[in-house]
Amino acid sequence: MLTCETRETALARLGRALADPTRCRILIALLDGHGYPAQLAETLGLSRSNVSNHLSCLRGCGLVVATYQGRQVRYELADPHLKRAISELVDVVLAVEPGPDCVDE
Questions:
Q1: Residue 90: pLDDT over 80
Q2: Listed GO molecular functions (predicted)?
């Protein structure tokens, strides 16, 4: 059973990952299945090193897992629940009216 502290830590990691637009784009791209850094870079119009750095962060947050296939690394969402959660979050965000950016003071 997850403790309150464990839940807070998990939400903080998710929040850190979602706080960056590039990481959000990568997560959304991975909703359709696994991806490779070079393929994600091309699809998203980013440099491979940029994508690799963000994938490293997402891996550190526990949101994606890496599978080594020879010299290539395949990335995918770490858990099927995460796919459903991200999809639901996108639906919630789309339902909220646009307004001023949320900024810490």
A1: yes
A2: cadmium ion sensor activity; DNA binding; DNA-binding transcription factor activity; lead ion binding
